[in-house]
Structures are given as C-alpha cells and as structure tokens.
Amino acid sequence: MRTEITELLGIEYPIVQGGMAWVAEYHLAAAVSNAGGLGLIGAGGAPAEWVRDQIKKAKELTDKPFGVNIMLMNPEADAIAKVVAEEGVKVVTTGAGNPEKYMAMWKEAGVKVIPVVASVALAKRMERCGADALVAEGCEAGGHIGENTTMVLVPQIVDAVSIPVIAAGGIADGRGIAAAFMLGARGVQMGTNFVVTDECQVHENYKKCIIKARDIDSRVTGRSTGHPVRALRNKMTREYLRLEQEGASFEELEKLTLGGLRKAVVDGDVENGSVMAGQIAGMVKEECTCKELIERLVKETDALIKGAGFYE
Ligand SMILES: Cc1cc2nc3c(=O)[nH]c(=O)nc-3n(C[C@H](O)[C@H](O)[C@H](O)COP(=O)(O)O)c2cc1C
C-alpha cells in the first residue's frame, strides 16, 4: 500500500488515526504508529506542557513517526506549535484556523504540515501557504464537521490541488478505504473506528455506546450557531436540539455542551456528555487492538483493489 502519503510520512500504511481531543492520547497514537499507520496526539484544548509530556511518553512507546493535532483556537496554540518543533515531532495536523504563521518554523524543524479542511477554498489556501498534504474531512465524521460529504468533497479537493489528499469521515473498513482511493485520495484518516480499540483510554461506556449504535443514531447539534458537531444521540443531544428549535441563544446552548466531551470520555457520563462519533458507528461491532484493526483494514483493501472483479 505504498502511496505518496506513505512516502511523505515514512510510514507503512496510508492510514492515519485522527487527532481527537480528550481521546487521542499517547497510548493510542503510539499503538497506531507501531502497527504501521500514523498515530496522532490530539492537543484539543490542552495546555502546551501537557502536549510536551504526551510527546515524550509516546516516544518511550514507539520509534516510528507519530504526529500532533492542534486546534488553532486553543489559546495555547502558539506555545503548542513551538513544542511540536522543539520535540522533533514528524507531522502536525491542524484544525479550526490558519497555520500560516507557524509554517516557516515547522519547515525549518522538518515537520510535515497537514491541515484538515472541509472546503475547496480552504484546501487551495492551505496549499498556497505551504501545506505538504491535506486531510479532506466530510460531514459523516465524528466531532466538528463541515457541510459536504466525503463522497463529494474528496474528488473536488483532489482536482483543486496538487498535493496529496487524505480522505476522512465515514470510513470504517476496506470498502471505505478502496472507495477513498477511487475518489483520488492517497490515504485515509479514521477517528470513530480507533475509539473502540484496546489501546484507546476512553471510558468503557463510550466504547459501548459506539458498539451499540445503529446507522441512524448520530445527531448534529449546533447548526444554528454555525458550529455543527456530530455525536451519538442521548439526553444532551435531545435537549440541545429542542432548545435550538426554540431559538435558544448561543450562550444557552453552550452551557449544555461545555466540558461535554470530557464528561463522556473521562467520567463515562454518556447521557449528559457529548459522545462524539461518526455515522460509521453503526459499522463498529467489537473492540480490538490497533494492530488487529489495521491488519484487517489492509487485508480488506488489498483484496478489493487487487482482485476487484466488478465486471469482466
Ligand atoms: C471524539 C472525537 C473527537 C475529535 N476531535 C478532533 C480534534 O480535536 N481535532 C480534529 O482535527 N479532529 C477531531 N475529530 C475528527 C477526527 O480526527 C477524524 O477526522 C474523524 O473522526 C474522521 O471521521 P470518522 O469519525 O467517520 O472516522 C474528532 C473525532 C471524534 C470522533
């Protein structure tokens, strides 16, 4: 499965574990990288020194490349950007903003920069400011989402830029990976699937919710405020959507979700917390190790790509 992405990142398989706030800490990132993919530590809203500590711990568990995902809205984004360069992290993915001001520092430190984008316009802007590759994330994904589905977003971004594209959102198995390749992607990023692995440290209740979920069990809150988020339906999403329909203010809605992901991930409160997960939750049936998951994905994709046999 050699592609421009495996070459660029020095990894075995073009499979990236998405940076996930509260969820993607060093155990998960190191396990994915050890299994031949690219693991990411999700900095989320955490302080810079927490990120440094996570990087150090990941290095103790793996000598393979791994990365850090930075939410650029984090008040400590400047400090985290510096930590990434100082600690010799190989890859950084960015969300919720423009990483342009860090580009020179990262390039000098040899960091590969991969912004996450949900539109063609942003994809072009990121290429112009020096990105090495892009993650094109469709709205099937868990967490903060854009407007387009992966199916329509990926080919449009592939056509608009000349750097390699990694498809994200709604990819659960070899069929999804093969489909992403057909759309022009050279790699995939998955989040929801990796939540339900042995090495992922989220509360058991969170994993159980994903395993139990059916195709229709995710909801998007926050469309009215311009900050849509996909999570599994529970008491919080019901209440949020009711308030949204009633025209509640941004502040009122914020109160419902403040600290919601932490509540679900750390405390296991999957009724009042935010159980962020993508539409593929309905396809995740059991927990396994990152190595087992990646080996299965590679086997399934290989079988489809090499012996497709759709027609004679
Ligand atoms: C619980 C959760 C938290 C996430 N947090 C982040 C984040 O902090 N930064 C980011 O760029 N993407 C975040 N994402 C998106 C993932 O990195 C990934 O792109 C997405 O999950 C892919 O779609 P999938 O869920 O269908 O696999 C999050 C996703 C989930 C499920």
Give a nutshell description of this structure:
This protein has helices at 4-9, 26-34, 48-61, 77-86, 103-108, 120-128, 150-160, 174-182, 192-195, 204-212, 235-245, 250-257, 260-267, 290-306, and strands at residues 15-17, 39-42, 66-71, 91-95, 112-117, 134-137, 143-144, 165-168, 187-190, 218-221, 229-232. The protein is of the alpha/beta class and 312 residues long.
User: What is the overall silhouette?
Assistant: globular
User: Regarding CATH, which class of the largest domain?
Assistant: Alpha Beta
CATH topology name of the largest domain, in short, is: TIM Barrel
How confident overall, as mean pLDDT?
Answer: 96
Q: What is the H level of CATH, i.e. the homologous superfamily of the largest domain? A: Aldolase class I
Low-confidence runs: none
Give the domain tally. 2
State the end-to-end distance. 24 Å
